Amino acid sequence: MTILEAAAPLSYRMAPCGPRGSPQLPPWRRIISPSSCRLCTLISRQFPICNAQSYTDDLWLSSGSAQSSTAVRSRLLAAEREEAKAVLSLFLRQKGLRSILAARIVNKADGFIEHLVSKLQITYRSRYAEGRELSTPEIRDALIPYLEALSKEHGDGLVEVVENFPDPFAMEREALSSSMFLTPTSSNKHKAIARISTPTSGGALPELVLYLLDLGMDHEEIKNVVRKFPAFAYYNVDRKIKPLVALLLELGVPRSNIPGIIKKRPQLCGISLSDNLKPMMTYLENIGVNKDQWSKVLSRFPALLTYSRQKVETTVSFLTELGVPRENVGKILTRCPHIMSYSVNDNLRPTAEYFQSIGADAASLIQKSPQAFGLNIEAKLKPITEFFLERDFSIEEIGIMVNRFGIIHTLSMEDNLRPKYDYFLTMGYPRNELVKFPQYFGYSLELRIKPRYARMIDCGVRLILNQMLSVSDSRFGDILQKRMNGI
């Protein structure tokens, strides 16, 4: 039994067949009776983006219909809005938002939905000229790439852009409805920059600019922030900027560091303190983030508090699954909050599997050198592994070196590994000295390795790499003196 047959007891009527040879709509796009809302609900479970009534009613209007073209266009626009809402909701869920939260955001984003509809108008201008409807795949094909582009541009600030679509865009949307012309995103940036550059009627700069200047930012820095995140130009000083500044000062962030935080993550200003920031801080403190270190954490990586709870929990779950003790997860985030920006599926998991494949302890490594998990496997990790393999180190030896010196894969091939290895070959040490002490690659060639080796040779003694490099200058001198005296 088909879904339509199952719904037969409900009241509905089928749209009349179109002209011979005209495209036939699938069944779920033919149900048009207002009394069939339950059916549309039923169908929507099978087809998440479904606006059959609005589309079919307009598509199959006969030439003798008494309805005006204005009414037809009105219903088409209504259907397009619903399609745009469904696409946006789907996109937000794919970005990690819970279904309830995504729906709440979409329902508050009327201005942004109109903006998406205008995108459809310009993308399919010829279709509109012919009076033809758009299919759901066509709508998705037009909107998903645009949303992806916005997501790349604004990152986690996309939600802020969606919810607080700038007021000046309303004028733009009004123009779009008549001209079907969409101003490029770069124009929106120009408008936002103009907003913070144009004096008020009284001749003064906008309040936002004056406050940020007093905070220590210069006008060009403010413009750069707006170029990065145009919505920032429309933030209310008293409701958004000042509360965040007060929180940062309360956490011990020096006032001089606050401009840097805003420049790195202006989206932070748009997040609710009571609903998002403080609950997230409490959660992170409960998993071990040192609350006394918030000043350093936020100065280093203010984006930490802009991630969704789901994103954070996913990362925490992966770390514990990998074998990191739960009490150490917070220590990792305190020392290297950037790890939260790494995707579990695209970065953390594949990188852990790669390190395990060469014999490294991934759980131990991510605690000692979490930054290594943000590296590209093909472009960075494998070439360094190959570097040692080509010099007759075994996979097992490389694994030992990684376990002993976790950042070895983060080092530059040309500026670090190659010149230091070439110099090592001139020192007369056996290769296993590097396996025992891979930290050799962490010392400066010109300021540490060469001077100490030369001094050691001058004294006529021989020390292992660890003794030669890891001790202080005074301790190194004492060791040399003792060896020279035969002690």
Write structural notes for this entry:
The structure is a single chain. Among the domains are: 69-178, no CATH class; 443-486, no CATH class. It has 487 residues and is an all-alpha fold. Helix 3 packs antiparallel against helix 4 (69-94), helix 4 (69-94) runs antiparallel to helix 5 and helix 18 (309-322) packs parallel to helix 20. 63% of the residues lie in helices and 0% in strands. The protein is elongated, with a radius of gyration of 31 Å. The model is unreliable at 1-68 and 167-184 (pLDDT under 50). It has helices at 3-6, 37-46, 52-59, 69-94, 99-107, 110-123, 125-130, 136-154, 158-163, 168-179, 185-197, 207-215, 219-228, 237-250, 258-264, 273-286, 294-300, 309-322, 326-335, 344-357, 362-368, 377-389, 395-404, 413-426, 432-436, 445-459, 465-469, 473-484.
Low-pLDDT runs of 5+ residues are 1-68, 167-184
The percent range for strand residues is under 5%
How large is the count of helical segments? 28
- Rg from C-alpha positions? 31 Å
Helical fraction equals 55-70%
Judging from the principal axes of the Cα atoms, what is the shape? Answer: elongated
Number of strands: 0
Q: What is the succession of H and E elements?
A: HHHHHHHHHHHHHHHHHHHHHHHHHHHH
The biggest beta sheet reads: none
The termini sit apart by 94 Å
Structural class: mainly alpha
Query: Overall mean pLDDT score?
Result: 80
Family: Belongs to the mTERF family.
Keywords: Transcription, Transcription regulation, Transcription termination, Transit peptide
GO biological process, one term: DNA-templated transcription termination
Protein name: Transcription termination factor MTERF5, chloroplastic
